[in-house]
Amino acid sequence: MWKKRILALLILLIGIGISYSVYKSEPGLSKSSDLSADVERTTFLSKFPFKLGLDLSGGTHLVYRADVSEIAASEVTNSMNALRDVIERRVNLFGVSETNVFVQEGGFGREGENRLVVELPGVTDINQAVTMIGQTPLLEFKIENPEFDPLAVQEITIDAHSIGEDGSLIIPAFDNGGVERFINTELTGKFLDRAMLEFSQQGGHGGIGGEPIVSLRFNKEGAELFEQITRENVGKVIAIFLDGAPISTPVVNQIISGGEAQITGNFTPEEAKLLVGRLNSGALPVPIELISTQTIGPTLGEKAIDAGVKAGLIGFVILAILFILWYRLPGVIAVIALAIYISIMFALFKLIPVTLTAAGIAGFIISLGIAVDANILIFERVKEELKNGRSIIDSIEVGFERAWLSIRDANTSSIISAFILFWFGTSLIKGFALTFGIGVLVSMISAITFSRIFLRALGRESRGKVMRFLFSSGIK
To answer: What's the CATH fold of domain 59-149+178-294?
Structure first.
């Protein structure tokens, strides 16, 4: 018996330690003075703060419209998914953690419209958020339009608008008849594998290090497209456009295989370095237009957190009172096991880490209800065995064995449901499914393990009236 009690005491001490670590790792939870705040944040879990979603921490919600008019219908989905991945990488480079980027299709004013939603927790400056997205360049490769006739271009009137800042003549890419000089190809920035900064062998920009060149390396599919384009346009110009403006118009002298190209746009080293960084962070496969912005202030998130914590504490206290009144000593054990379960869940939220949103917290609360249900099944089985004349120890063992099948089946179906929701659901549903699935798994372990160990440690072979009173129903 003493071994069981030592094990129960050890689990209790570990639970208290986890609770204390979680409590002290969040200054907002402990109403301490600013003077001792640094001392309190010395626990292991202090390195893993809670990560709150946009609805709780505040941030920026951006909606972009994607222009897929130049993309084949069969490639729209792939292009939108590529756009999502590129922008997600882009904003992550700026240190914005737990970004939420997802695609919305149709149902927004016109048929076939595709939209991209970007949520940036903790970023409340809309201009900063827009800059993060807008700096990503749109890289396009265009070929000469066979319908374009250079001789049909009308005489260009040179005025103040035709002269650039450096005094050079600005030649428009369109003739006066409205026919484009270059037309799009399928080769865009979405096929770019890597951009690199190199220098030509000839001196340039003062003769130091040669002229900056931006070298491009395409992926396998992009390399095949580039080889096909150069094969069909030997002796012609392939224009490289960046953000809608031509930056290089090289002539194809021969078929280029291997998937490598160069941009020589008379860059300074600083400009070329910046372009390489922007291209490597992700060139947009399709143009986008910002159509909606929304800022969620941190004050609203703080109120939601405070209300949630308050509601949780009130609910737990009411639940604890009902458990103790109805189940007496097993009720006390159930309350202790639930407290340890909650502490473990909070620690897991920090360590995994889990981004807590309102939906995620709802999933955790539901899993807590399932943990309560498991304890009720066990204790009701124990009460039935006591009424049949078994000893307390025998009633505990038989009660757990008979309740286990129901707990196993119910929790397995819940875990399968959580897995399906996480696999097929949207980002909002995934947050709910993750906390719900983890909560159900941990609750099953805590109900079967912790409660059983505590009951074994407190139960006795004796049929004394006091022990049977403590294990009987609180209300008859």
So the answer is: Gyrase A; domain 2 (3.30.1360)
